[in-house]
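User: My instructor asked us to take a sequence, write out its structure as tokens, and then describe one feature of it. I'm not sure where to start. Here is the sequence I was given:
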Amino acid sequence: MESQIGYNFFMKLNGKKVAGVTQDDFNISAKVVDSITKDDAGAMQSTVISHEITGTIAGKLKKKGVSEDTSLDMDDLMSNALKTGTDAEIPFVYQRASGKAYTGKLIITSYSESTNSEDVGTWSMGVKVIGNMSEQSI
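Assistant: Let's start with the prediction itself. The structure tokens for your sequence are:
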């Protein structure tokens, strides 16, 4: 997926590209296993076995219009937020403005939307990365 100025998070929902921006919470927490063996002479050893990666992404979009069959709308976002099992896994690309790009799969853990009297709405999703994030060569 190509980059788009002002956004750092990209995914495809229902075959349509979604560009969002991470809010002030993109978190990587190490999952650690502690152990003590006879060979450690009583000193605790810690090993990182994986990472839990969570965050919130947000964006704006237009409410669905009569002739907008190919535009992403809030129904697309909500239908993906309601998926379960492997259908809920969404490939994504994460890239900061001057940084490397990372890819992986995520699941939506929460969804919120807000609209006004105009044709514009905002959305936000809580997400959790499943598996690993991998550095992408650009």
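For the description part of your assignment, you could build on this observation: The beta strands are 9-13, 16-35, 45-62, 90-95, 101-115, 120-136. Try explaining in your own words what that tells you about the chain.
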